[in-house]
Amino acid sequence: MKPDLNASLGAALNAVPTPPAPPALVLGAAGWLGSALLAQVLGAGHRRVGAWMRRPMGSTLRGLVPVLDADLEPAQEQPSAWAGACAYLVLERAGLTGAARNAVFAQPDASELLPLAQRLRALGVTRLLVVLPHAPGSLPEGLRHGFADRDEQGLSELGFTQLVLVRSSRDTQALPSGTPWLERFAAAWWSQLRWMLPDDERPLRSVALARVVVQAERLLREAGPGVRVLTQAQASRAAQSGVQGAQTLRVWAGLDAQPV
What we know:
Keywords: Membrane, Transmembrane, Transmembrane helix
Largest sheet: 7 strands, parallel
CATH topology: Rossmann fold
Mean pLDDT: 79
Radius of gyration: 21 Å
CATH architecture: 3-Layer(aba) Sandwich
Transmembrane segments: 24-45
InterPro entries: NAD(P)-bd_dom_sf
C-alpha cells in the first residue's frame, strides 16, 4: 500500500510548532559543573540564554548573552528581559578551572545565595534551580554539609513558582568538635574509600549531573508549582540510560505515579 503523500503533507503543514523554551540564566559558570551546565542549557532550545559574567567575553559563544552585575538590577522604566525565565544558580568551589575562565565568569559564594535569589526574583525569574556538585572536593566551604535550614526556608519564601535544590554528596558530614585526630583521619579515609565505588554507585560527574538537571528543568515545565529536592541518589538513577532513567525523573517531578 502506497503512502498517502497528500495526507502526509497536510499533517506536516498542520503540525503545531514547538514553542521555544523560556529564557534561561546561568549563574556560576566558572567551575567544572557550571561550565558543563552552561553547555547543556545552550543546547536546550531556550529563547535566550544568559550567563553571569565579571566582564564581557572577547568572543561570545553563539546564543549566549553576557549578563553583568548591573544587569541583575531591574530597570524600572522597561520590562525585564528575563521575566518568566528559569535560573540555574551553581554553587561550586572557586578556582577549579583556569584563570582565564574565572576572570570572565562570576562565581557566586555560598553567602550570596539568598541575596542573588532575591535579585533574580526581582528581575521576574519564576523558577530557580540551585545546584551543588556531587564531588566533595568541589563544594564551597560554606556548603560542605549541605544547605542550611535557614537558606532553604528563605529561598522558599521568595515567591518562585518552582524551586529545586540539587543536593550534594553527604560524604563529608560534620564531626563533633573535639573529635580525636585518629577518628578524623579514619572518617577522611572512609570518605575517600567511598569515592572509589563502581561507576553506577559513584556521585555523578559534572557532565552527567548537568545533563540530569537540564532534563529535570524540561520536565518541570509540565509540572505544578512547589519546592522540590533532587537528591544524589535520585540524580544517579535518572542518569541511567533507557526507560528507567527517564521514569525516575518523571516520578520525581510528579508527572507519573511511583511504580508498584
